[in-house]
Amino acid sequence: MSADIVLSVRGLETEFQTDDGISKVLHGVSFDVKAGQTIGLVGESGSGKSVTAMSIMGLLPKPYGRVIGGSVNFRGTDLTNLSVNEMHEIRGDRISVIFQDPMTALNPVHTIGRQLVEVLKLHRPELSKKEQQNHAIEMLRKVKIPMPEKRFAEYAHNLSGGMRQRVMIAMALACKPDILICDEPTTALDVTVQASILELMRELQDETGMAMIFITHDLGVVAEICDDVAVMYGGKVVENADIFSIFDNPQHPYTKRLLSLMPNMDDEPKQKIKIAPIDPAEFPEFTGDLGI
Amino acid sequence: MQELLKVEGLKQHFISGKGIFRKGYTIKAVDDVSFSVAEGETLGLVGESGCGKSTLGRTILRLIEPTAGKILFEGEDISACNALQMRQLRREMQIVFQDPLESLNQRHFVGMILEEPFIIHKQGTPAQRKEWVKELLEKVGLPAESVTRYPHEFSGGQRQRIGIARAIALKPKLLICDESVSALDVSIQAQILNLLLDLQQEMNLTMIFISHDLSVVKHISDRVIVMNAGKIVEEGLVKEIYANPQNDYTKRLLDAIPITHPSQRKKRLLANTR
Ligand SMILES: Nc1ncnc2c1ncn2[C@@H]1O[C@H](COP(=O)(O)OP(=O)(O)OP(=O)(O)O)[C@@H](O)[C@H]1O
Ligand SMILES: Nc1ncnc2c1ncn2[C@@H]1O[C@H](COP(=O)(O)OP(=O)(O)OP(=O)(O)O)[C@@H](O)[C@H]1O
Ligand SMILES: [Mg+2]
Ligand SMILES: [Mg+2]
User: Fold this and answer.
1) Rounded to 5 degrees, what are φ and ψ at B5?
2) Min Cα–Cα distance to chain B from A275, Å
3) Could you give the 3-state DSSP secondary structure of residue B132?
4) Residues of B in contact with A61 (CB under 8 A)
5) Closest approach of B25 to chain A, Cα-based (Å)
6) Under an 8 A CB cutoff, do A100 and B156 touch?
7) Residue A265 pLDDT > 80, yes or no?
8) Any ligand 2 atom below 6 A from CB of B16
């Protein structure tokens, strides 16, 4: 099946300025995002998944972080060349992101209802004020926030971790973006709520043809929702294939390792998990300086 | 086995949504909860997002004052402790927060963040403390250079591990882990779970392990509590609950266990639309 490529990441290199000097984090990351499909970004903690998302969105912490090489092609435009203002327009309207840490993205001094309505004002200006409010409450209901009419007037710090994540998801989905980047969006959600959220995302995908980049460490979620998977290790994509190839015929030693350690409900409780140390000799392409 | 922690009729009620013209409403985040944990035992705590797990964890450590109820640690009612006694006790009762940024001082180097507990409790010489910090970093799989970096310079999962390292620094008797491995890839997650099992063996650590991941809970716990809307709805040995859940919510939770291969997708979708 060949689908339109809406976003093409090529040879992305990103570095940070730290107290100890320059630290290069991305060593040439490449992958394609297809319309109406979901690509999973998995990989070791610290391998550069979030930094990849931030680099695409132009949201690296300034002035310490910067893209020093490669391109991010979105409909004929290289996003890495856009000005701050141009990028601001693309963000939210065409590309939305759900951050790994919701508290950095939610405004602590405004109620979550007000923040949702702000989003709708921008993206659904045709709706009346009352309609926007109702729509916002409806979004909260869809992400399974209990008593949404009451919770509408709540501040983010009074919500549980998983509720914050779901408010972020509601805000991102309300924009109906072309591309949605989700960075560990379901880490605090129990399986029942998680299933409804994945369903909701899939519905929107069917309806609008939204493409998704789904960053997660949860291989169950990957199996559930992704069409393609890119596996990252040490600031590089070490394997990139369709979902069945990844699960049935993994090529890279790190991918094999991940699949072999996938938690299993049949494991004996309270036994140590057998993990072999990573053998650097198995990772010839890795030349990074992450020291992990 | 000796009882380490006992909680009796614990309540944590919040008044929310109160404004100049609004009366507000009560959220019973923890509502009459009683249970106990034995020394060296791991108690898994699961339940729907928002059911009160994190609030229960914080209330046990008196980071928020309970609305009602008793918390007994080694038989002593800690609700009666003054601030100084509480500080002493916190050395033995540690929590790894769900949101690591909340608990890590943003303006300190990671080296300082990890050394601070030893300084506060007057342990070791500066050289010894540096050595302990190095060991802690190694245990959670972070490079030694991390000491001169700030928390915001780390990835989500790396921050989680800094939180874990700090919490185990003083070898507490009770460790509450709130979604502490939720952002870790399976290979590092396995390493951390092994570390916790080791600590339990070495120093008879007692744990309350909050997680939405049922396979992880099964792996690490002796006993499980299932919460729903602030109340305990089911409690028992891991084996029994997983094999024979009594409560409706527990059943739904176990039914919704994630798939392990993309070919299982269809089946599940059908099962869900029942
Ligand atoms: N502001 C920064 N300054 C310096 N280094 C940074 C900064 N932000 C991230 N890094 C480093 O970049 C690397 C990649 O981080 P990133 O957050 O992308 O990892 P990740 O793959 O998302 O991991 P996780 O699964 O743990 O969230 C890490 O080694 C991290 O320490
Ligand atoms: N300071 C507060 N003020 C008002 N309500 C609060 C406060 N803290 C928590 N709550 C509410 O208490 C309930 C329980 O929250 P808690 O964070 O304990 O849930 P949780 O079980 O940890 O959920 P999650 O799995 O999503 O982290 C939620 O409805 C939350 O909104
Ligand atoms: Mg990340
Ligand atoms: Mg919580």
Assistant:
1) -130, 135
2) 7
3) helix
4) 152
5) 9
6) yes
7) no
8) yes
Q: Which of A124, A29, A107, A100 is nearest to A69 (CA)?
A: A29
Categorize the per-residue pLDDT at B83 as very low, low, confident or very high, splitting at 50, 70 and 90: confident
Indicate if the pLDDT at residue A288 is higher than 80: no
Pick the closest to residue A229 from A211, A237, A241 (CA basis): A241
pLDDT at A72: 97
Task: Please indicate whether, in this complex, the C-beta atoms of A290 and B186 are within 8 angstroms of each other.
Answer: no
Please state, in angstroms and as integers, the Cα–Cα distance from residue A26 to each residue in A15, A18, A68, A140, following that order.
7, 15, 10, 36
Closest CA to A223 of A40, A6, A71, A93: A40
**Average pLDDT, rounded, for chain A:** 90
Nearest C-alpha neighbor of A60 from the set A108, A17, A119: A17
**Window from A79-83, B22-26, B37-41 with minimum mean pLDDT:** B22-26
Enumerate the residues of chain A whose CB falls inside 8 A of the CB of residue B19: 153
Distance in Å, CA A21 to ligand 4 centroid = 37
Distance from CA of residue B94 to its chain's centroid?
A: 9
CB-CB neighbors (< 8 A) of A150 in chain B: 16-17, 25
- Whether B268 shows a pLDDT value over 90: the answer reads no
